[in-house]
């Protein structure tokens, strides 16, 4: 039976104008038609079920291009997470999938987990055995022995070793290959400013990925690692924090290389970045905002990703990261594009999702208010449908960021590790 969703406002894509009194007709898991209700009504199948969503803005489902579904944001964790049993992690991951949907996110890139748990979860969601967003899986990130997230099961060194590990990811059926080009402060003794792989090692990983039509992205917080990944032919940079020894320093020449080689940046803004006592040890919140502004001024294309899953960054608080982008100078339309159709292009899904067009996946969300007028709308999801399946929303709970920041600072003083991954 066809379903017709009717709303006060309809945004078909990030570049379109808002349609007043809009409707979207869904058949199975695809969109049949979308537009003004008066026109849709005349062609509506007689048996269609009509759902009046009321005073909301209906728009394409959102992308989160950087999550860690196996992690628990309410507990302090290092990358050494070998103690939980896989069965426990599976339960956690399926629960986190529901929390992702609660935010209006219908597609995620799961950029790092233990072994092959991500592709296994993807298979269960695709088969309808678990409810969740569309999952683009990376499985374990490729990292140097003893390096950032090395306990997750993906270590490699040397050109031959890196080639073999990349080929292993291909065999696992990943959608994207993730590499830890620099260290991170989640792993003790790991420097976020220092590059861990040579250009030659990174290039062979990129070659394997691209030979099989798989994009390759990297955790690169440091300037040295960012430039090496660009030179090696990587498609995307995660975090891109511009870390150097003793702090951060934006590099305009490297930013020009990002633009020239069409390398996308996923800056991973999230709930932690909302707090004035931002708890990243190597940076300040002011620098984070200025670096985002500089990326925009240099014309670097970004996509929305949050790193949600790490401590203090709940999956359902996706909208917090969008607020940070607005604060840094991005327009609401730019943010919507980076969270929908631009993200779908980067993820290789531009013909599948990211717009509400006939034949595309029925990934549909509705927010109170108008997201083109206020970023606050994104924190008020009222309806979520992922691939034609309605999701029963759970109310989003507030987060005490000040308490989290204080707890993180205390843990860091005790020598525990914490990081963006």
TrEMBL record:
InterPro entries: Amidohydro-rel, Metal-dep_hydrolase_composite, Metal_Hydrolase, Metallo-dep_Hydrolase, OTAase-like. The keyword Lyase does not apply. This is Amidohydrolase-related domain-containing protein. Transmembrane segments: none annotated. The lineage of its organism: Eukaryota, Fungi, Dikarya, Basidiomycota, Agaricomycotina. The keyword Signal applies. GO terms for molecular function: hydrolase activity, acting on carbon-nitrogen (but not peptide) bonds. It comes from Lentinula detonsa. Keywords: Signal. Residues 57-388 form the Amidohydrolase-related domain. Coiled coil: none annotated. Pfam families: Amidohydro_1. Residues 1-16 form the signal peptide.
